[in-house]
Amino acid sequence: MIKHFAFSAQVLWxxxxxxxxxxxELMETIRRLGFTSPTQIQEKAIQLVVQGKDVIGxxxxxxxxxxxxxxxxxEKVIPNxxxxxLVLTPTRELAEQIKNSLRQLSRYKHLAVITVYGGxxxxxxxxxxxxADVVIATPGRLLDHxxxxxxxxxxxxxxxxxxxxxxxxxxxxxxxxxxxxNCPKKRQTLFFSATITPNIKNLARKHMINPTTVLxxxxxxxxxxxxxxxxxPRNMKLSLLVDLLKHEKSGLVMVFCNTRRNVDFIVxxxxxxxxxxxAIHGGLSQNKRTNTMSLFNSAxxxxxxxxxxxxxxxxxxNVSHVYNYExxxxxxxYIHRIGRTARAGKEGKVVNILADTDYSAFSNVLHDxxxxxxxxxxxxxxxxxxxxxxxxxxxxxxxxxxxxQRNNPRRNRYQRRGYSSGNR
Length: 424
Description:
The chain is an alpha/beta fold. The protein has helices at 9-13, 24-32, 40-50, 65-76, 92-105, 123-129, 139-148, 164-169, 173-181, 198-207, 237-246, 260-272, 286-297, 331-338, 359-368, 409-416; strands at 3-5, 55-58, 85-88, 113-116, 134-137, 158-161, 188-193, 212-215, 225-231, 252-256, 277-280, 303-306, 319-324, 348-354, 374-376. Strand 11, helix 13 (286-297) and strand 12 (303-306) form a beta-alpha-beta unit.
């Protein structure tokens, strides 16, 4: 049975971290980290987690849920006593982010907190996992360790499933269930998700004991979020994006694409046109992805072009603009994308660049979220042509007549043979 839990507004109004009966050492660490007052999900869930309850928490990215389960981990885990807490995440970036947060939060206890994910050598993980108190893992690599017998879950007493809805979206849920069946039945289980779907409820019924559901409002302020869209020919999308970004001077900008190929394509063209941009998607090495996020979070590079791997879980502040170069097929992904801006009382803007290939997906967004106010912009500035030979697929199968002809492989072939353009 899933219970729903809610506080009255009067109870929540003046709550402080001191009200949660946390240990003196943990309270001191929270103060040193600069947390002054709890967020809504922290107000509702920290006490339940510390008391050992099973909890389903619905909260958006950036709402502070890592501190919620982090308090439970720090208070319950005993150093040098084997693996006692496991956090499952859908992406490597989120795993690294959680690891860094838990290491900061547990520094007075000196807990051994490690990450386990694919894309890197498994041998160092085999060594580190033997001494780990807390593991943050992606499902596939943890299953690999289970099959090899290199991880021991017999002492596990706290299991956290973070971004649970994303696990379903990415097809990880079968792996997650296999892992949960290998965990001790006597344990505390926590689910955190941006949305509580029927799939998550079914999973909770199978693997949780009388879980309490806590709900937190979305941190995005709709009154401070402006959404607009341009409707233009397909072969002008990139030109418009370049023009808009050249006139964009405020904050950090995220440009979302649906595929890795288009992310690389956009970044290459933005750089050629004098816009400093970096890419992140699942096809990059872990070191590359980590360095990319470091550059963007520190504002050393202001434009991040990405797939939906960056729409969830990762902690990114001060994003003023979100550009949808392509509209996602799932309307929920659109919500997660725009949730990157207009946070914590700040203003934000979403710019959708539509062509005929986006109409169906954009119609789904408008159908599912009728309360959106999205303005159509009829006019836009003169668009400069891109001085680079474009990918034919970006232009509906035909190669544009403009561009830097030095990049034309046919022209280069004639030059290598010693011909000029006039004697082919």
